[in-house]
Amino acid sequence: MITELGWDAQREAEWQGNPLSEAGAFPGRVVRVERTVVHVALEDAVCVVPASGCAVGDWVATDGSTWVSVLPRRTELSRHSADRTSEEQVLAANVDAVFVVEPAYPQPHHRRIERMLTLAWASGARPIVLLTKSDLVDHDVVTEVESVTRGVEVISVSSETGHHLDVLAGLISPGDTFILLGPSGAGKSSLVNALAGAPVLATGEVRGDGRGRHTTTRRELITIEGLGSLIDTPGLRSVGMTAQEAGLEATFDDIASLAAQCRFSDCAHATEPGCAVQRAVDELALDPRRLDNYHRIEREIAHQARRKNAYSRVDERRDTKSRRAAKRVVMEAKGRADGSS
Question: Where's the CP-type G domain (predicted)?
Fold first, then answer.
């Protein structure tokens, strides 16, 4: 079973040198995460183990009943937590491809695509953009969207007509893991069902305003025969940035290239003299809306980095106080013992 889920020769070699293997633990993959437990697929069974800190797609070591230990991740797709903490929410681990799903109808949302691509690039996985509901439009949406994807492959697909489903299937191999990242109502579930040729996922209605209702309520890994493994996630209402700049630079590589030509190395691309980025905007070579989105995402990433550092300092001070308190208790106990002898 685990070979079908992506367990390969490299992981097997790493596992053979793992002390947990020698201690009798089993390798497995997290296929579902619930509040206090995870479902782990082993070689010949699925076990439910109490755990926290795991993500769907994680490879783990487990005794099959009481504990799990997360093995090193190759890729990690995460976003800023929906609450007000500085924590990152890991959506999926060990993903080979991130399919950014955006409905072509009524029209693709370029700024949302840029945000999702930033997360996808930061994960370390291969990003691909899928424009669903292509049967509802009569113009070339692919060329339009390619202007913001900067070399990332863009495919228009339709679960209704089967348009380009063969192209999409050709990008997925058995043993691969992929995830569909997009808003509710983008047609993710319908697309997967059309690929699988069977109702693998539940589908929901789309409201009159084009927004969908959540049909997926939890993250889980589903194996599709001949097409590898899909990590199914609820539609994203928000795409909060994490403190990772790599995704920003990859998504906006055109702006990064222009920035290298600015007069000042610390140019903020606002009102500075000699700014090559602003010059490109003035010459209509760069869409000002794209630059605005770049600045917005850049500020979010910087904000999360500051919050993360602040929380780290608080945790460090708390740990230092705990160690000092523990040392004081030990010294006092030792003093009492010496005094009574």
Answer: 85-239
Alpha carbon of residue 148 to chain centroid = 20
DSSP single-letter state for residue 27: E
> Whole domain around residue 91: which residue ranges?
76-232
85 is in an annotated binding site: no
CB-based contact 225:195 (threshold 8 Å): no
- Within-domain flag for 299: no
Q: What is the pLDDT of residues 115-140, one digit of tens each?
A: 999 999 999 999 999 999 999 998 89
Residue 132, annotated as binding a ligand: yes
Does the annotation flag 182 for ligand binding? yes
Tokens of 117: 């691509």
Asked whether residue 262 is marked as a ligand-binding residue, the answer is: yes
Residue 235 CA, chain-centre distance (Å), reads 13
Query: Among all chains, which residue has been given the structure tokens 């700024």?
Result: 111
CA–CA gap between residue 48 and residue 65 (Å, rounded): 7
> Which among 36, 70, 104 is the end of a domain?
70
User: Is 135 annotated in some ligand binding site?
Assistant: yes
Q: How far apart are the C-alpha atoms of 184 and 55, rounded to whole Å?
A: 21
User: Percentage of the chain with pLDDT > 90?
Assistant: 68
